[in-house]
Design goal:
The complex is a heterodimer of chains A (227) and B (220). Chain A is α/β, with parallel strands linked by helices and 227 residues long. Chain A contains 4 helices and 13 strands. Chain A has one domain: Glutaconate Coenzyme A-transferase (3-Layer(aba) Sandwich), CATH 3.40.1080.10. Helix content of chain A is 14%, strand content 26%. In chain A, helix 2 (99-107) packs parallel to helix 3. Chain B has 220 residues and is of the alpha/beta class. Chain B has one domain (3-217): Glutaconate Coenzyme A-transferase (3-Layer(aba) Sandwich). In chain B, helix 5 (102-114) crosses helix 6. Classes of the chains: A alpha/beta (227), B alpha/beta (220). Chain A binds chain B through residues 60-64, 77-81, 85, 90, 96-100, 102-104, 106-107, 126, 131, 136, 138-146, 149-150, 176-180, and chain B through 26-30, 52, 76-80, 87, 90-91, 97, 99-107, 109-110, 121-129, 169-179, 206.
């Protein structure tokens, strides 16, 4: 049992996080030496905030462990790309493997953590991040479903509200699902959340928003983190 | 027995209309461009293509789609910023699409190559991609049954082959190629270098020559 205190880590005196700051906050919670897959898009930028001595080993699903930073200039090699198909570099100790092995690493529970974007996350940890379901939209799943069920822990990195102001943490997802009950934590521009697995969503920290306002805008069972 | 072909055209000869063709590559890394160009010249039609993506820009797999030779594509990630050839065909109803999770796509080919009749995976459970598929509880968790993808032909690229068909790859250009090599009746490989038996370190061979039917050096 953790000790109970009266205060929540609630900060209304500071503004919402920018995209870079969101990635930095998440990077700070990645354990030393973890094997990590960073999804396409904003999750990829988490790598820029990992300290060099963190010993985190990055996996890219197109067949590599020990992925290094983006390649530039003469270091660009068309045979060496990441899952977003951008040129990258290899670090000492890197390894290459084929796709069936790469996904065996995921499904087999060997990856410590993956970071994914999302359209919606439900209070029970269901994830929707691959398809808007709109008529005419071309469905493209890539490795999202495999990552979501396979990694030991799943962190989501996203803004908390859509441009129209709709919350993305919801009671039940209305977008097509990627995987059921898979999300452990959500890192947003205004707060970080822990999904407990029993339909409670715990607020860990806030930026520029009060717990009361979060509670009024999210239609889920929110609790304050007590520590 | 592996045949060393003099040209990409010779390497793709005999591919029949209606064939299922595995095409290696992840984006353009490992894409067998010269074999695809030869298949366009060869002209086989009504093909089912299995590949991770549905073509990039106007070359490689995109050019094969544009030539109207593909009836159906099975892939994990068709929609990309430069997939305009596929997007147009799909939106005008000229190509059938089957989307599979990337790891399931790879494992379905691995199963075919390994003589496995299917496998249960947690990937996709509770999603649109598992609709209509058999599910089963195993030790308290739900799994979905996925079936093998066997093909008539695999078109892949590798870095170096010896004349017995043993292959080594380079960096992330490896991707699906070793799996696809096992899953096709005829595996055709384009390589940058061809060496004599004994010149590849046997410990470093990734695809043993038993899986390889035809090799061609490009440029030839």
């Amino acid at each position: 049992m953790r000790p109970v205190s009266a205060s929540v880590v609630e900060h209304t005196d500071r503004g919402p996080l920018g995209r870079d700051e969101m990635a930095r906050v998440l990077a700070g919670d990645i354990p030393r030496g973890a094997y990590v897959n960073l999804g396409i898009g904003q999750p990829t930028t988490v790598a820029d905030h990992l300290p060099p001595d963190a010993g985190v080993i990055l996996h890219t699903e197109n067949g590599m462990l020990g992925m290094g930073p983006a390649a530039t200039g003469d270091a660009i090699d068309p045979d060496l790309i990441n899952a977003g198909k951008s040129p990258v570099t290899e670090l000492p100790g890197a390894s290459y493997f084929h796709h069936a092995d790469s996904f065996a690493m995921m499904r087999g529970g060997h990856l410590d953590l993956c970071v994914l974007g999302a359209y919606q996350v439900s209070a029970s940890g269901d994830l929707a991040n691959w398809h808007t379901g709109e008529p005419g939209a071309i469905p493209a799943v890539g490795g999202a479903m495999d990552l979501a069920v396979g990694a030991k822990r799943v962190f989501v990195l996203m803004s908390l509200f859509t441009r129209a102001g709709e919350p993305k943490i919801v009671r039940e997802c209305t977008y097509p699902l990627t995987a059921l009950r898979c999300v452990d934590r959500i890192y947003t521009d205004v707060a970080t959340f822990e999904i407990t697995g029993d339909d409670r969503v715990v607020v860990r920290e806030t930026w520029g928003i009060s717990f009361a306002e979060l509670r009024s805008r999210l239609d889920v069972r929110l609790e304050r983190d007590v520590h | 027995m592996t045949l060393l072909c003099a040209s990409a055209d010779e390497a793709v000869s005999g591919i029949a209309d209606g064939s299922t063709v595995l095409v290696g590559g992840f984006g353009t890394a490992g894409m067998p461009f010269e074999l695809i160009d030869a298949l366009i010249r060869q002209g086989a039609r009504n093909l089912t293509v299995v590949s991770n993506n549905a073509g990039n820009a106007d070359t490689g797999l995109a050019a094969l789609l544009a030539a109207g030779q593909v009836r159906k594509i099975v892939c994990s990630f068709p929609r990309q910023t430069d997939s305009w050839v596929f997007d147009e065909l799909y939106r005008s109803g000229k190509i059938e699409l089957e989307v599979a999770p990337q790891g399931t796509l790879a494992e379905r080919m691995r199963a075919a190559g390994a003589g496995i009749g299917g496998f249960y995976t947690r990937t996709g459970v509770g999603t649109l991609l598992a609709e209509g598929k058999e599910t089963r509880e195993i030790e308290g968790r739900t799994y979905v049954l996925e079936l093998p993808i066997a093909a008539d032909v695999a078109l892949i690229s590798a870095h170096t082959a010896d004349t017995l068909g043993n292959l080594v790859y380079r960096k992330t250009a490896r991707n699906f190629a070793p799996v696809m090599a096992t899953a096709a009746t005829t595996t055709v490989v384009q390589v940058r270098h061809v060496v004599e038996p004994g010149e590849l370190d046997p410990e470093a061979v990734v695809t043993p020559g038993i899986y390889v039917d035809r090799i061609v050096r490009v440029p030839s």
